[in-house]
Amino acid sequence: MKEFLKGLLKTSLSISLMAAVACTNDSTEIERPDFGKDRSNAALTTFESCNELESQLKTSILNDTAANLRERIPFGQHANNADAAAASSSSSSCSRLHFLQRTAERHGVSPQEHCDRISSTYRELWARWGISQDRFIRTTDPRHLQLVQQFFARVEASGDVVTGRQTGWYCVDCEEFKDDPADAVDPDCPIHRKPLEWRDEQNLFFRLSRYQSAIEELVNRDDFIAPASRRQEVRNFVAQGLRDFSISRVNVSWGLPVPGHDGHTFYVWFDALLGYLSALLDDGGDVDLDRLVETGWPASVHVIGKDILRFHAVFWPAMLMSAGLPLPKQVFGHGFLTREGQKMGKSLGNVLDPEVLLDRCGTDAVRWYLLRDIQFGDDGDFQQQRFVDLINNDLANTIGNLLNRTSSMARKWFEDAVPPGREGAGADHPLAVQAAEAVSTALEGLDRLAFKTASEALLKLAIAANGHLNDTAPWSRMKQPGQESAVAIDLYAVLEAARLVGVLLAPLLPDLSARILEQLGDPQTSEPWEQQLVWGGLTPGTPLPKPSPVMQRLELDEPL
Fold first, then answer.
1. What is the DSSP string of 312-326?
2. pLDDT digits (tens, 9 = 90+) for 445-500
3. What fold, for 384-532?
4. How far apart are CA 17 and CA 64, in angstroms?
5. For an engineered disulfide with 325, which of 23, 118, 320, 397 has Cβ 3.0 to 4.6 Å away?
């Protein structure tokens, strides 16, 4: 479970971090990286993206807060009849260029070179942040193309691909039609604040409307969409009636070609979603949809940004139904961040830069703030002073100081080792009781992706341990005759509570967790994580290294 959660949180953190680099990078396009994580036949998969790269996938916590989002239908009108076969040629060649092509041309490079540069930038940044992935999939990967072709063949054989005309106002950056009326005068994209382009072209459509009943049944389940606050939006959208959506674009050279349909390339929201599957099949075996179950499909949870919830909770399940594949068990839509009550954007100069965050604050501080202060799934507001206060109070003072002063006393009075108090600090010890409650609450929270709940539970245990230390005052009792045994029991209990705090931190703040356990002379072991959460795991007599601060206080005199 620990590794599952660490993987989830690493990808969640990467969702948070990717935005800032997009906002500070002059480049404005990236391919769509996907991640697949095999967890006992339950794949954990996420889509990642960034702010100015919203034309691909828009899932970043930080970047998407820079977007002033509104309710929108991500496709235009179409007519499924043979008479509407010819696309209008009135649009200029420039207007038909894919956004990525335009961006690459502006930088004087090929689309492939442009994507390579951006992709490497992200991989380097993730490495610095300790963000890892089992699979890094790019849609230019030949294996991905093979899978897309197989999937499309199944959907087409199901009778779910038809030809129609796509008309409407189109945002090149978003790669989607907007729901502005046809008679709108010079409308702008509400996200990018750029003029929309009128499109009138022949496309291939997926017959989403055929799956109205099945999708209604799916989204009305209480366990499919999380958190609960996201469900009604999708249910309302489905209740309006599902419309077929375009799955191809014409005259766009940068993209995956549609088999049997010359001049068509796949629309991003058809082929990119399939990266979840191609990631799982990127294991050295054959690219074969029939192997998906053995490689980890269906997904346990898709962690995505709330603005792409409809694609994952409506379009994606229908596509899987059409191809005869099992559905993901859950789609989790996380929220957005603002900063000091304002949306983030380059024009405002208030974007959180991951390079600056890393250099000035470190990974533990950022992760703790995002997990401790913002309920995962809700929108949040980054406030620098509160950020500093939480890190200093929670990590440096409450947890770090607890460990330092307790270890120092144990070393001073018990030969630089863990005191011999385990037998006296059994399951009925007050801290043992509180530790059991903290473990139970944290595990339940982690299971629900309620990371704030889990963080608060382990912090409560650290506060209780500090309180017990203050109440028992071992520094005074050691001066009294015959109190050494009682002091040994109390110090053991506090150190054991600190150990459990460190173990509970492992899926949340793995670096801080490792430092805590090392300072207890108890480096991380191969023992299953859940077993490490049993009270009494600290062995009396274990040498305690000389204590050093496990978390430095933050001192931020200037804005991040």
1. IIIIHHHHHHHHT-P
2. 999 999 999 999 999 999 999 999 999 999 999 999 999 999 999 999 999 999 99
3. Isoleucyl-tRNA Synthetase; Domain 1 (1.10.730)
4. 11
5. 320
Task: Classify residue 545 by its DSSP letter.
Answer: P
Going 201 to 205 to 210 to 216, the CA torsion angle's sign is: negative
Tokens of 399: 């947890």
pLDDT, tens digit (0-9, with 9 covering 90-100), for 1-60: 655 555 555 444 443 333 332 222 222 222 322 222 332 222 233 323 222 222 222 222
CA gap 17, 15 in Å, rounded: 6
Residue with tokens 């077993």: 531
Q: For residue 452, how many other CB atoms are within 10 A of its CB?
A: 19
Task: Measure the CA–CA gap between 309 and 307, rounded to whole angstroms.
Answer: 6
Residue 432, number of CB atoms within 10 A of its CB: 18
Structure tokens at 122: 């992200």
Length of the chain: 560
Q: With 90 as the cut, is the pLDDT of residue 62 above it?
A: no
Cα 325 to chain center, whole Å?
24
68 and 343 Cβ atoms separated by less than 8 Å = yes
Beta bridge pairs of residue 224: none
Q: Has residue 63 got a pLDDT over 70? A: no
Residue 280, pLDDT > 80, answer: yes
Residues 147-181 as b/e (b if ≥16 CB within 10 A, e otherwise) read bbbbbbebbbeeebbebbbbbbbbbbbbbbbbebe
Instruction: Give yes or no for a contact between 35 and 275, defined as CB atoms under 8 angstroms apart.
Output: no
Q: What is the mean pLDDT of the chain?
A: 82
Would you state the pLDDT for residue 249?
Answer: 86
Report the distance separating Cα 162 and Cα 243, nearest Å: 13
CATH homologous superfamily for the domain 2-355: HUPs (3.40.50.620)
CATH 1.10.730.10 domain span(s) along the chain = 384-532
* Comma-separated ranges of CATH 3.40.50.620 domains in the chain: 2-355
Q: Is 303 strand, coil or helix?
A: strand
* Distance (Å, whole) CA 141 – CA 251: 22
Listed in sequence order, the residues at least 6 apart from 113 whose beta carbon sits closer than 8 Å to its beta carbon are 104
pLDDT of residue 98: 57
175, pLDDT greater than 80: no
Tell me if residue 70 falls in helix, strand or coil. Answer: coil
- Six token digits for residue 549: 């601060």
Identify which has the larger pLDDT, 235 or 18: 235
Q: Closest Cα partner for 47 from 14, 96, 87? A: 14
Strand, coil or helix: 106: helix
Residue with tokens 């929270």: 445
CA 267 to chain CA centroid, Å, is 24
Amino acid at 498: A
In SS3 terms, 373-400 reads as HCCECECEEECHHHHHHHHHHHHHHHHH
Q: What is residue 432's predicted lDDT score, i.e. its pLDDT? A: 97
Distance in angstroms (rounded) separating the CA atoms of residues 305 and 378: 11
Residue 26's pLDDT is what?
28
